[in-house]
Amino acid sequence: MELAKRVAALTPSTTLAITAKAAELKAEGHNVIGLGAGEPDFNTPTHIIEAAEEAMKEGFTKYTPSGGTNGLKDAIINKFKLDQGLNYSRNEIIVCSGAKHALYTLFQVILNEGDEVVIPTPYWVSYPEQVKLAGGSPVYVEGLEENQFKITLQQLQETVTDKTKAVIINSPSNPTGMLYNEQELKELGEYCAEKGILIVSDEIYEKLVYGENQHVSVAQLSENIKKHTIIINGVSKSHSMTGWRIGYAAGDKDIIKAMTNLASHSTSNPTSIAQYASVAAYEGPQEAVEEMRAAFEQRLNTVHEKLNSIPGFSCLKPQGAFYLFPNVKRAAEMAGCKDVDEFSAQLLEKEKVAVVPGSGFGAPDYIRLSYATSLETFEEALSRIQRYMSQFQ
Ligand code: PLP
């Protein structure tokens, strides 16, 4: 049967090919190290699991309001107050089945055919596809490595047209790990507010920030910027709850209402049990969040220099999230590969290390390595890559 045009235009994830190949090699008995993980390698904290058990025992197993329970909305409202000093009401929050679904629903309700969404590169793989699925057109702006992969106000000004509906800011970033500072956010935020452009602020890695760096939400910087911002966040990365599928959006009540209407005809509601557990995630002890953050930071500090010492690799030090994003253009050339996609395939083929090529993030000279894996495993992967590159020196 002929499929709908909107899905025919969907590009498959570039990570899929390499993940499939890694799985195939593993099945053949090879000792493959996968550095593609986009999720914390820790278990969900025990008190959250216990809350889910309690939810099931207490019969909290039925439909909930489409936009999420009042209990979870209140926990999210409280979190915004505590962490960012931001005030939201229940009608300015929607709980969705993961942050990814919150973004999907948002683009569905704000975009008309031909509306443009500015997406800084390198970008998280799902942004362009979600914008296209909603009939919008992604417009890319290159976040240069010299500027820590961040876009500048001038670049944004040169990109905005009268069709620009929204701009995506993802800080800390997947895949680069970089953060926008307060001044940068203020400049971008004020410009968008003045132009009536919606800022989609994806803050899913908010809790994973290292060294002296601090996460700032663009919505904190003025009441007017807040009015033009939809914050996207969730418990997946902060509380190691990727499989529970709880994320949310916060912002303008009319947008939230439209998203809630759409959810009422698609998912009905996020899982009742996961919502109940997410209240415990926000209202219970937060030590585990800090422990996981500290573990990621320790790994980063241990492996970053080692990665940079590999011939042909050059990597800025990430400030957050759990990815390293080295430029490997020279390494690919040294290895005689036509591009970094081929180089990534070679690393898998020859050394059984699976990395994600940057082409999927709109940055074809780079690869993404996730350190959401044990230090021992990551170091073994680096040794293998080092061994592979040593033959080309
Ligand atoms: N935004 C970014 C930048 C991400 O990296 C991810 C997950 O990889 C998400 C959103 C989606 O998170 P969730 O698991 O809550 O859907």
TrEMBL record:
Alphabetically ordered keywords of this record: Aminotransferase, Pyridoxal phosphate, Transferase
Cofactor(s) listed: pyridoxal 5'-phosphate
Positions in coiled-coil regions: none
One function term, GO molecular function aspect: transaminase activity
Entry's EC annotation: 2.6.1.-
One GO BP: amino acid metabolic process
Protein known as: Aminotransferase
Protein source organism: Metabacillus lacus
